[in-house]
Amino acid sequence: MRSHQSLFNRELQLEESKFMEMQFERRENDAEMSKEAMHQIQAQMEDLRSSNKRTEDQLSAAFEKLNGNLETLSRRTEASRGEREGEARFLKSRVSQIKKWINGPEYMTTLERSRAKRTPSTCEWYLSSQQYRAWKSYKFLTTEARPESSVMAAPGPKRFNPILLTSAKPGFGKTTLSSLIIDDLGLQPITDGLSHESECVLFYHFVSEQPELCLASNAWRAILSQLIHGCRQQRDVIDALSVLYEESSMGQRTASEEEVMQCLLLLLPRFSGIVLLFDGIDECNNSYSFLESMGSLCTETCTKSLLLGRPNIELPKDLRDLSYFDINHFHNYDDIVLYLTPEIQCLQAKSWIRADPPLKEVVSVLANKSAGMFLWAYLMTRYLSCRALSPKERHEAIFVSSLVEGMEGLYSAILDTISNSYSIQHAKVQKIFYLIAIAARPLSTSELQFALAIKPGKVTDTDDLIPDFKESLPVICGSLVEVSDRGIISFIHSSLHDFLTARDAGCHQKFLVDACHRHLDVASLCLSYLVYDTSRSPLNWPTRSPGSLSALQAIFPFLRYSLNWVYHASEGLRLLEKTVQPLEEAISKLVSLVSKFMRARMSVTFWVESSWTLGKAPVLDCLAKQLATADGQSLYRALESHAGFLRSFQQLSSDISRLKDEWGHLLTQQPSAIWTSSITAFVQSDFLFQTSDFTISSLAPLADDHVSSHGKDSAASRSIFIESQVSDSGKVLGMVVVTPSSTYTDVVRRVLSTDPTKASLHLSETQKRDFIKAASSGWKVRYDQRSTQTEATILSYEFELPGDDVCQLLSQSMASDNPERFPFPIAMNADLTRLIVLRTLVTIHPAPKTQRLDSPNKKPRGMDSSDVAYSPAFSPNGNSIAFVTGKQDAGQIQMREIEVWSAEQVSGAITTAEPVFLRKGSVIASWLSVPQIRQHDTSLGFAFHPTLPFIAFSEWIYISGWFFCHHGPEQRSWKNDGASQPFTVDISKFLKAVLLDLLSTSPSNTQSVSVLVENQGASTAGLSLHRDQVTSAVILWDRTCSGETNEVVLAHLPQSARREQTFVSLLNFRSTDEWVRMVWNKGAQKSYSVHDEANPYLPSIISRKRVLASEVDIAKRLKSG
């Protein structure tokens, strides 16, 4: 049992073992399969990862490419947009430049006014007329199809002219009709831009009330301005105009009439649908010449044209076969009925017109009496609306034909009604009429309102201003005057101006405008305003923008127009001999006001400032001439009662002209400068505002040698002021004057002309040599020294120049393009004790003596006999002299010979004796002058050391140094970062910078400054003197340690006609000094001539009261005298 049980247990264990083995095998098999699956899964995952990576890389690359394409597209879009914007800006700028050059007048106002006046549904009969339709349908043949024998071809008649002249009597409404024609022909495309097939109209209205709008040249400028505006987006058209603009303008600001026509001839053939329209041809200042030009232009450019004007137009021979359309009263009849019907109906509704005549009958009678004149119909309705008329008087005016026959009859009826009103009203209407009739330009409502209130010789009371003037004016004037939307006043029609100014027109005597009388009256009005109604203090208006000027007019309503007093006075005197009326009262009133004006310094100064502020420089020359030459007993009697009037006015005219010539550059920029000390001190006028805080003392060396006291052929009359300089102590002023020989002066004045329009007589080479030999002797030089403190003469030394030096000088002069001019190089040392003139050295201390510094005959390599002498130069200590010569026509490569002389004690001489100057040798300086500075390059090519016998000079790409106490130049280099490149800067500034490095170890660099010279800097840190090139202001710059710059304007200087070189020296002053003093010097000029007029201001001592606290600190930093 136990054995069976044991066997059973072993068998059971065996079975369990097998089962376990089988399980393990199964597990191993499963594990193998799982491992294999895992490997497969892992392989699949790796494949998936690789695929994803490739896809991701592809997507990334695609995205990068897409981003790159987008960025490229964006850049191209931005670049394209930038190019388009740049192109648009360029075109806009160029179009603006060309428009400014064309200078077209205003041309839209008349069109806008006529459009507003036009009654709806009127004038349409014209558009359907046979003449207009035939002209409008006319087409030019293309250039290719055009027959050689004819410029144009057209349907219909064999000879059809593309110019249509529409004529009608005054008042027919031609201007209003023109607005309808413009709209019908197509004004709109011109505002949107023209294409080659565009159909549009270019128009102009001549307006007799505005003289500037009656000029034929302005008509063509207006047409061209419209055409350019329409082509403003077309680059090819603007480029073509630009070529003409740049080649033809010759530097002038405004295109000439010929250039305007050239532009039109260039542009009009490009567009086949352009039509020209001109209204008011009879009002053109030269209608015959204008029509000739228009006919020629239309023929050459194949352009149609439509003209409107009165029947009395004289046509050139070539235009006598043009198409006519003569408007008569039948054409306008229905339109006038259309206009009159509601007007008469309104009057009947108010019971101002009897109701018994039917409306249709009244309208028919008035339409027939109008004879086709719209103006008559309009004024008749205004006349019938006058409250001063009774119904019976209105009925008679309508049905009694003799009362208001034609325009003149209607004008007379309206004026009679006005004259029967209060005397104050018709006096104001009379004043309104003559102010409008003779105005220099159309008046604005504010100007006319104030002009009516002015009572000459009295301050204007604002209570005298008519309230609601713009609305009241047409009522006051019986609708004979109208106000535009812009507030500009004019007559209802140009025929009214003719009626009021023509003596034989039957005008009411009270309203007849005598031009001579009324010009004098308006001149008195303007002067009275300037004397009594303006400020007696500086206007000091900040800007000249339109908004700013509008604000100025709000404060001074009549100021802008009052500046025309000179024009009205001149016109009155011009017409004086043609008038038959006694005008003694008007002339006496004007002369009295002018006298009052001249005595009022503040008023004259305010007038000058206002004129420059409003862009109208004051001029009195024409009026002064007319006062001196005008004929008339009334004028004589008026002038007799004002002793010295003519002499005073001539002096005022001279002062105003001088003010413009000498100070126009400053007043253009700063009109209020007329009140400043500089102008008033220099001008010294008895009529202008003066101050006591600025004085001018002229030390001109020729002031006492005036021609009038010595005769035309005296030595004084031949003298030429060369140059002036202040000593380094600031106490002495040196001046050099040369007197050419009488032989030279006579030949130059008689043979060599300075007028470019007069050719100088040609001299042969033999004659030139003979002239030079004869004229080179007898030249004298005078060297004067004056005290800057007492202005007394310290020294006056005269000597004669060696003939050889003058001979060389005249040889250079005769070989130049301007033989009447000669160079004259001189130099003075710092303390003015030595002077070099040509090759003559003058030593002043202890006694004046001269030394001849002869140049060796042999010229250094690279130099020849055609070289000219530049100004010699002293070293800062005055012990050395450098003579500089070089090519006169220097190109990009500059070359100068520098010949150095130095003072040495002669062996065996007394130690206290004045040293003698000996020649040390010469070097050649050369450098590159870049185009940007070549024109203003005055460099001599070297610079002296302040204390050592040493010069630094340029040798192409090197800076060399020479201790000239040695035998030869010693080559050294400084601070040339691009040593392989030539110098392209101002070489003088570079050389001074090099020497500043040497100064850093020199004890002399701490010395203080007594005199500060313009544009030469100072060794006292931070102080420098400069000149503003626009306003000629002398400005002291003070640079503080913190880097800030303070500016003090010391003075303004006048501008001379010759524009000679000048410079200012600021003299030393103490912090306790009340005055700042400076000397205005004449600098070295390139050449001189006996034809030159001496500047009366050079040299001058300018004294100015110290007004700024900062000037005290500046004084402390300048060496006290």
Account of the 3D structure:
The protein is an alpha+beta fold. The chain contains 37 helices and 31 strands. The strands form eight sheets. A five-stranded parallel beta sheet has the order 2-3-4-1-5, with helices on both faces. Strands 8-31-30-29-25 form a five-stranded antiparallel beta sheet, covered by helices on one side. Strand 26 (1023-1027) and strand 27 form a beta hairpin. Helix 11 (329-349) packs across helix 12 and helix 32 (742-751) runs antiparallel to helix 33 (765-775). The radius of gyration is 45 Å and the shape is flat. Residues 142-159, 188-192, 706-710, 756-760, 858-865, 932-936, 975-986 and 998-1008 have low confidence and may be disordered.
Task: Give a brief outline of the structure.
The protein has 1121 residues and is α+β, with helices and mostly antiparallel strands.
Contiguous low-pLDDT stretches (5 residues minimum) are 142-159, 188-192, 706-710, 756-760, 858-865, 932-936, 975-986, 998-1008
Largest sheet features: 5 strands, parallel
Overall, the morphology is flat
Proportion in helices: 40-55%
Q: Enumerate how many helices there are, as a single number.
A: 37
Sheet-strand content, in percent, reads 15-25%
The whole-number mean of residue pLDDT values reads 80
- What is the terminal separation in angstroms? 153 Å
Can you list the strand order of the major beta sheet? 2-3-4-1-5
Structural class: alpha+beta
Radius of gyration: 45 Å
- How many DSSP-defined strands? 31
